Amino acid sequence: MAALPGFPSSFVWGVSTAAYQIEGAVGEDGRGRSIWDTFAHTPGRVRNGDTGDVACDHYHRFAEDVGLIAELGVDAYRFSIAWPRVQPDGSGSFNAKGLDFYDRLVDELGARGIAAMPTLFHWDLPQALEDGGGWLSRDTSYRFAEYAAAVVERLGDRVSRWITLNEPIVHMAEGYAFGTHAPGRELMFDALPVAHHQLLGHGLAVRALRAGGATEIMITNNCTPVIPASESEADLAAAAVYDGFHNRLFLDPVLLGGSPLTDGAPFVLDGDREIIATPLDALGINYYNPTRVAAAPEGSPLPFEMVPIEGVPTTAFGWPVVPDGLRGLLVGLLDRYADALPPIYITESGCSTVDEVTADGRIHDTARIDYLDGHLRALHQAIEEGVDVRGYFVWSLLDNFEWAEGYDQRFGLVRVDFDTQLRTRKDSFSWLRTALSDRR
């Protein structure tokens, strides 16, 4: 395979994880209950009845995992902080032992020369807040800002780059609209207040982080280029609606100060738009695949439906592999937002593969190598076309608890045996380490 094209010397290379997916240690050291604890322990919600109770046991094995990150040779580690570990009820007192864990993690990263890049919310809302309405309640936005202030006070002397929310579209859609993720509500379009309150919490958290000395703050959105199934008027209209729902609902308010889907809604109060549009230093983009959209059949509860993209490879998850979709997405964002678009970090990009351990103990995940190689070349092309991209983070360092799919989908550069917790470097780990070493 040919060497990767040249990226700027300041380009940040990293790997990403999320707390509930890897930490385990549920109930230890004062950690409160999260909506994912409740959801995963509800029969029929997660494949095979899997839970994140142990996951990768990262809470106890973080030093080993940081060692893997250092061996890989990346610059930064994007992880998430478990809100219920830091503040068990999502309000009131903070848990010193929970904050101590992230102290130890940040210190271990610093000792290895790896920049810490925390995400404050990666879907594990404290159950006590959900009992009070969750993100349907405006109060959760204010509680989130208080939590952000406490975390930056504790870690801000060693952490400069912060992410407020991870993929608010996915949390709203899967958690509150369709019920396939925690907290499992099925509100359809009545879930729109969740979008607004997450973004309000984001804006308030940006201000809290800034007051605490943070120098680079961003939000991470899952974005997808939307492809109409045909040139028919109905399919074009359906694609536009889906683009508005998936992409613009969470980018327009942050970058432009408003969204046609929520402007004028009763849950939008005076001053909210200005808070949500508090200036950012960067924008996180998670990219996995494009989405092909057609008009929904008559009588469908939604005005659009997703249809397959033909003639392309798919991941073990069944997601289409279209590297040029990343280039097209980024160039499209620049066209749409122009000077309002801040510098971008690709904060997640990766794929699940069917990994088989050979007799010699190796995992030849060629499909993952091809995925990463293709997407990095597409990313380089986007930079050549004028998009200011500052970094790329692979999802994920470790195989982990993949939400409603349990342990069935493996995204890691490192295989985890969930019975023994043995970590095994896959071929993709070695490929990326070599690619980064060749560039230094």
What can you tell me about this protein's structure?
Substrate binds at residues 21, 122, 166, 288, 395, 402-403. By secondary structure, the protein is an alpha/beta fold. The chain has a single domain, classed as Alpha-Beta Barrel (TIM Barrel), CATH 3.20.20. It is built from 14 helices and 13 strands. The strands form three sheets. Strands 1-2-3-4-5-7-10-11 form an eight-stranded parallel beta barrel, surrounded by five helices. A hairpin with an 8-residue loop joins strand 8 (291-295) and strand 9 (304-307). Helix 8 (168-177) runs antiparallel to helix 9 and helix 12 (324-337) runs parallel beside helix 13 (366-384). The chain is globular and about 60 Å long.
Provide a brief overview of the structure.
The chain is an alpha/beta fold. It has 14 helices and 13 strands.
How are the elements arranged and paired?
Blueprint: E1 12-16, H1 19-22, H2 35-40, H3 58-72, E2 76-80, H4 83-86, H5 96-111, E3 115-121, H6 127-131, H7 139-155, E4 161-166, H8 168-177, H9 192-211, E5 216-222, E6 226-228, H10 233-255, H11 272-276, E7 283-286, E8 291-295, E9 304-307, H12 324-337, E10 344-348, H13 366-384, E11 389-395, E12 414-416, E13 423-425, H14 427-439
Helix pairs in contact: 3-5, 7-9, 8-9, 12-13
